[in-house]
Design brief:
The protein folds into 2 domains: about 10-105 and about 210-260, 2-Layer Sandwich (Nucleotidyltransferase, domain 5), CATH 3.30.420.40; about 110-205, Nucleotidyltransferase, domain 5. The chain has 5 helices and 10 strands; from the N terminus they run E-E-E-H-E-H-E-H-E-E-E-E-E-H-H. The protein has helices at about 55-60, 80-100, 110-120, 205-225, 255-260, and strands spanning about 10-15, 20-30, 35-45, 70-80, 105, 130-135, 145-150, 155-160, 175-180, 195-200. Strands 3-2-1-4-5 form a 5-stranded mixed beta sheet, with helices on both faces. It has a 5-stranded mixed beta sheet with strand order 8-7-6-9-10, covered by helices on one side. Helix 3 (about 110-120) packs across helix 4 (about 205-225).
């Protein structure tokens, strides 16, 4: 794959189709410690069965931009909508194949973990070290949950829970909570069991803009780490529950001629 070097600014195409809304934007980083900026960010609520609208979203995000200017592509691998994850992956793989670009995956669990562990631009956490949960909206009237230790290590296998069972299986105590499902959880449902949720300052709101900021910053940090010699995460989809449909044996990316035939190169 082409590993482009740009000493001044690099652009990463970000693709997220895993949630209720699809978002595509361009993350522009100047290098060093300067925070990245999200340009041409396009947000669209995609009705079921209308995934072709994602291509229009990509065209809008790339308006005034050239694919040849991109350094890499980052795509959300989950958890979230089963179909949305596959649509986002197929689009990202097609663009990456057509333009010979590095492609890496982002997990909402890792985005939430990074927010808790690093918290740039957000108020500091309470003094005590607390385990934490990342809750992700499933679009099935439930939440996907990943539990971490205070040092950021995975404490238990990710699972799917109802809004009022976020505390299921937890030991008594206090837990920090973040993620796209924060506003959906029943925060008081664990108190009788001695389990308390604490939402850190800055995490409650408004999540769409906060998530977009965390998403782009984690993407940039991941790419910057790769520039320093680190490995890029893979793009294996992160499914917490079995699929509702039978999968094709191979999810093949579009070849460059196929993608060009669909108008990707203008």
């Amino acid at each position: 794959m082409n590993d482009k070097t740009c000493p001044h600014a690099e652009k990463i195409l970000l693709i997220d189709c895993s949630g209720r809304d699809a978002r595509i934007g361009i993350c522009v980083g100047a290098g060093g410690d300067a925070p990245p900026q999200l340009e041409n960010s396009q947000l669209l609520a995609v009705p079921p069965g209308r995934s072709e609208q994602i291509v229009t979203l990509l065209e809008q995000a790339m308006s005034g931009q050239e694919f040849s200017e991109l350094a890499a592509i980052a795509v959300t691998v989950g958890p979230g909508s089963f179909t949305g994850i596959r649509v986002g992956l197929a689009l990202a793989m097609g663009v990456a194949a057509a333009w010979d670009l590095p492609l890496f995956g982002l997990s909402w669990f890792e985005v939430g973990r990074w927010q808790i562990m690093h918290r740039p631009l957000l108020p500091p956490l309470p003094a005590q070290n607390l385990p934490f949960l990342v809750l992700v909206e499933s679009r099935r009237h439930s939440l996907y949950r990943q539990i971490f230790t205070s040092s950021g290590d995975i404490l238990a296998k990710a699972d799917e829970i109802s809004y009022d069972q976020w505390h299921d299986g937890l030991a008594a105590g206090k837990y920090l909570v973040t993620g796209t499902g924060v506003n959906l959880m029943d925060q008081n449902s664990g108190q009788k069991l001695g389990i308390m949720a604490e939402i850190p300052p800055g995490m409650i709101a408004p999540w769409p803009s906060l998530a977009a900021w965390a998403w782009q910053t984690w993407a940039w940090q991941t790419w910057h780490g790769h520039r320093q010699g680190g490995n890029l995460p893979g793009i294996a989809p992160l499914y917490i529950r079995p699929a509702d449909v039978t999968l094709a044996p191979v999810l093949a990316p579009l070849t460059a001629p196929q993608f060009a035939a669909h108008g990707a190169k203008g």
